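Before relying on records like the one below, remember that each one covers exactly one chain. Contacts with other chains, cofactors or solvent are not represented anywhere in the record.
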Amino acid sequence: MLQYIVLLGAAGQLIGISVYIKETIRGNTKPNRVSWLMWSIATLIAAAAEVTKGVGWAVLPIFIAGFAPFLVFIATFFNKKSYWKLQTFDYICGALSLLAIFFWWLTKEANVAIVFAIAADAFAAIPTYKKAITHPHSESVAPFALGFFNALTSFFALVAFNFAELAFPIYLVLLDASFTIIIYRGKRKKV
């Protein structure tokens, strides 16, 4: 019965993303398109790999963690002032992220796909980490704090406690917690 808590996590993350999307369309939050697109691709690959390894309800938070960034990526096109100006560094991180996905494709093994999906996601996070540290006012805490909650709910739905079930949720917990702390502290310093 505890596995159904993932539905609360998914709903929470969708609420956080809807706040982020609203702030993006208004131009108050400026997402890095490279990060949000690659977070979507890498995480959806991880979700697909987990499904092929038989992961059950624990995959829902991972799927939502991939679907939600895609919605943010789309939202950046609704207001020309609502996205972060990309620089060479952003493109390099995006290329490294794509390279990790390519290496997964070469192997065609689900656990390897999860490792490379984590690598791709981490490379995609670097530009947003940089931006969150230097310009915390351009970010919102909501999607990361609720993403943290969403990722935590995965642990209530684990069955086998193997690599396929544990790897991406642990990574997402660490990623979302670190973004939440960085953005929150950065915004407090600016006040």
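Residues 2-190 form one domain.
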